[in-house]
TrEMBL record:
SUPFAM superfamilies: Periplasmic binding protein-like II. Keywords: Signal. InterPro entries: Peptide/Ni-bd, SBP_5, SBP_5_dom. Residues 91-486 form the Solute-binding protein family domain. Residues 1-25 form the signal peptide. GO terms for molecular function: peptide transmembrane transporter activity. Pfam families: SBP_bac_5 (PF00496). It comes from Pedococcus dokdonensis. This is Peptide/nickel transport system substrate-binding protein. GO terms for biological process: peptide transport. GO terms for cellular component: ATP-binding cassette (ABC) transporter complex; periplasmic space.
Length: 577
C-alpha cells in the first residue's frame, strides 16, 4: 500500500467550525472554551480528514479502518491491543470464536461465528450477513473504491481481462452468483472461504473491513457513503457531517461478553474532522475544556515533536510508534549503470540513512531501516546486509565504484516525490553518494508520482527511484511479493510497483514456495532471508521506518498505538476520567 488518503488543504477557522458544529447536535462539537468540558465520559478525537466513507466495503484508509474497527465495525478476526508488536499482531477471533481453521491445502478456511453478537436493531449477526458483505466488494462502487482482496484471493473465475465473472449481489447473473456461492459458503453459523491460492495468513486478511458483514435490509448501496449500521460498541448519533464529523453514542445492543477485543470505556466518542494536525496537537497540549479528554488521530508535525518529547509531562501523555511506511530506493536494474551489481553495492554502501532521518525530523519522526519488513512484522531484522552503517561508508563505496569498470564520477539520476522535507532528506543522501564518487542529478516530481515513475518511458531516464511501502496486514507476504514478484508487476504498460524492473524466476519461485509454508516461524524466517538477499544484491536500499507521535489530554487513560493497525491510535482500551 503506497498512498495515504488525500488531505484537505483548507482549514476550518475555529469560529466557523463552531458555528457549523452547533447547528447540528449530531456532528462533532469540540470547542476551545476552557469551561466547556463536554458530556461526562466523552472522548474527543481530532483529525484533519477527510473521511472518504464509513462503508466497510469502500473504506481503504488505514487510519479510518483503525477507527471504525474499534468503534462500530466488527470483523471475523481482529488484532488485539497490547503492550508490544508481537502481542498486537497475534490475530484473534472477533465475530468468529477463534482465528479460524484451515485445511492442509491452505485453500479452505473456516470460521465459526460467536453467539450473541447483534446489530444495533437487536437482530443477530449471521453468516448470511458475512456472505452479503463480502459479495458487495465485487459490485460498483465498492470494487473501484475499496480493498480488492476478495477478488484477489477467492476462488472465483475471472474473465480474460482479469475482472471477476461475479459482479456483485445487485446483478441478476445466475452463473456469476453460483461461482460466488461456491467460494463463500454458509452452514448455519459457519462460514467457509475457498481460495484460489494457498494462504497461511488469510485469517489476517479477514480482519479487514472488506470482509465485514452487512445486513442486506439496511444496505443503502452507493447512497450509503457515510451510513453506519453498527455491530460494535458505538453507533452513530444522527448522521455524519463531512468536514465536521459526528458523535458515536453507546450501542445498547453491544454486549462486552461477546467482544474480546474492545473495552469501550468512554460513554461517547466525538469525532471532530477538519482540524490541522498542528492545531489539534496545540489544543491537546493546552489541556483545557474538552481537550483534556481528547486524542490526536494525526501525527504531530516534526517541528512540534521535540517539544512534546522533551517535556516530561507531555511525553507521559504521548506515544511514538512505528508508523505504516518504510522509505526505500529501487535501483533501475533493467537499464543504465545500475545494471552493474557493483555500482548498486556502492550506492548501498554510501547511503547516509542517519542524515536522511535527521532531515525528516529526527528520531521521533523516523528510524534508520535496513529491511523492507517493518518492526511490526514477523521476519523483521535490524541487521545491515552490506555493513554500511547508519551514516554510510564512503571509503568502501568508492572502492566498489573503482572496481566497477566505470569512470568516476559515475552519473546517476534519482527520482523522488518532492516536498520541502523530502528535498532536504534527498540532499542529505546526495552528499553521501557524491563523497563516494557518484555525480547525482535529482529528478523531483510533484504530481502523480507513483503513476509517473511506473511508466515505461521513465525507466530510460532514471537510474534510482525513491519509493515507500506499507503492509496491508502484519505479514511480509504483503511486502515482498507486491514489490518484487515480476509476475504481478511487469508488463508492456509499465513496471507496476516493481519500479526498478527487477525480475528473477528464482525469486518468483521462492515467493510462491513461502506462500505455502504453514508454520508461522518458518514463514517469517523465509521472508526475512529473502529480504536480506534482495538487499545484498542491491535490488533495494531501505532508508527509514517512518514513525508517528500522538498526544492525549491529561484525562485520557490507556493511550496506545497499534502497529498491527498501521501504527495508528488504538481506541480498544482508551478511557477517560
Amino acid at each position: 500500500m503506497q498512498a495515504r488518503r488525500p488531505r484537505r488543504t483548507t482549514v476550518l477557522a475555529v469560529g466557523a467550525a463552531l458555528a457549523a458544529l452547533t447547528a447540528s447536535a449530531c456532528t462533532g462539537n469540540a470547542t476551545d472554551d476552557p469551561s466547556d468540558t463536554g458530556p461526562a465520559g466523552q472522548l474527543t478525537v481530532l483529525s484533519l480528514g477527510p473521511v472518504a466513507t464509513w462503508d466497510p466495503q469502500r473504506i481503504s484508509s488505514p487510519q479510518d479502518i483503525a477507527f471504525a474497527g474499534r468503534v462500530f465495525t466488527r470483523t471475523l478476526t481482529a488484532f488485539p491491543s497490547g503492550a508490544d508488536a508481537a502481542r498486537q499482531r497475534a490475530v484473534e477471533g472477533d465475530l468468529a470464536t477463534n482465528a479460524g481453521s484451515v485445511d492442509p491445502s491452505l485453500k479452505r478456511w473456516t470460521f465459526q461465528l460467536r453467539d450473541g453478537v447483534k446489530w444495533q436493531d437487536g437482530s443477530p449477526v449471521t453468516c448470511a450477513d458475512v456472505r452479503y458483505g463480502v459479495s458487495r466488494s465485487f459490485a460498483e462502487p465498492f470494487a473501484a473504491e475499496g480493498l480488492n482482496f476478495p477478488l484477489a484471493y477467492l476462488d472465483i473465475p475471472r474473465k480474460p481481462d482479469g475482472s471477476s465473472v461475479y459482479v456483485g449481489p445487485f446483478a441478476k447473473d445466475t452463473d456469476g452468483q453460483a461461482a460466488f456461492d461456491k467460494a463463500v459458503r454458509c452452514d448455519g453459523t459457519t462460514v467457509t472461504f475457498l481460495l484460489s491460492t494457498p494462504m497461511a495468513d488469510f485469517n489476517q486478511v479477514v480482519a479487514l473491513p472488506v470482509f465485514a458483514p452487512v445486513k442486506q435490509a439496511q444496505d443503502r448501496a452507493a447512497d450509503g457513503t457515510y451510513a453506519v449500521f453498527s455491530n460494535g460498541p458505538y453507533q452513530l448519533k444522527g448522521v455524519w457531517s463531512p468536514s465536521a464529523g459526528g458523535t458515536f453514542e453507546r450501542n445498547p445492543q453491544w454486549d462486552n461478553a461477546t467482544d474480546p477485543i474492545r473495552e469501550a470505556k468512554p460513554t461517547t466518542v466525538d469525532y471532530v474532522e477538519g482540524t490541522e494536525s498542528q492545531t489539534a496537537v496545540q489544543q491537546v497540549i493546552n489541556d483545557a475544556g474538552v481537550h483534556r479528554r481528547a486524542i490526536t488521530l494525526d501525527s504531530a508535525p516534526p517541528a512540534m515533536q521535540q517539544h512534546v518529547l522533551t517535556d516530561a509531562a507531555l511525553k507521559a501523555r504521548s506515544v511514538n510508534p512505528s508508523a505504516q511506511f518504510v522509505d526505500y530506493l529501487a535501483p533501475n536494474v533493467s537499464k543504465g549503470v545500475m545494471r552493474n551489481p557493483t555500482v548498486r553495492t556502492a550506492l548501498a554502501l554510501s547511503t547516509n540513512r542517519e542524515g536522511y532521518v535527521n532531515a525528516l525530523g529526527g528520531a521521533s519522526a523516523a528510524s534508520e531501516a535496513y529491511s523492507l519488513i517493518g518492526p511490526a512484522l514477523p521476519g523483521h531484522s535490524d541487521d545491515d546486509p552490506v555493513g554500511a552503517g547508519p551514516a554510510g561508508d564512503a571509503g568502501r563505496a568508492k572502492a566498489a565504484l573503482q572496481e566497477s569498470g566505470l569512470t568516476l564520477p559515475v552519473k546517476i539520476r534519482v527520482a523522488y516525490r518532492s516536498t520541502p522535507t523530502a528535498d532536504k532528506a534527498m540532499a542529505a543522501l546526495v552528499n553521501g553518494w557524491e563523497s563516494a564518487g557518484f555525480k547525482v542529478s535529482l529528478q523531483p516530481l510533484t504530481k502523480d508520482y507513483f503513476a509517473e515513475i511506473s511508466k515505461p518511458a521513465q525507466a530510460a531516464r532514471t537510474d534510482v527511484f525513491w519509493a515507500n511501502w506499507a503492509p496491508a496486514w502484519p505479514s511480509a507476504s504483503t511486502v515482498l511479493p507486491p514489490l518484487f514478484d515480476s509476475r504481478l508487476n511487469l508488463s508492456s504498460s509499465g513496471t507496476g510497483r516493481d519500479f526498478g524492473g527487477f525480475t528473477d524466476p528464482a525469486v518468483n519461485a521462492e515467493i510462491t514456495r513461502i506462500g505455502t509454508v504453514s508454520d508461522p516461524a518458518a514463514s517469517a524466517e523465509a521472508w526475512s532471508n529473502l529480504d536480506a538477499s534482495l538487499a545484498e544484491r542491491g535490488v533495494f536500499v531501505a532508508l527509514a521506518q517512518r514513525k508517528a507521535l500522538y498526544v492525549a489530554g491529561s484525562a485520557v487513560t490507556g493511550l496506545s498505538a497499534n502497529e498491527a493497525l498501521g501504527g495508528f491510535v488504538d481506541l480498544a482500551a482508551v478511557g477517560v476520567e
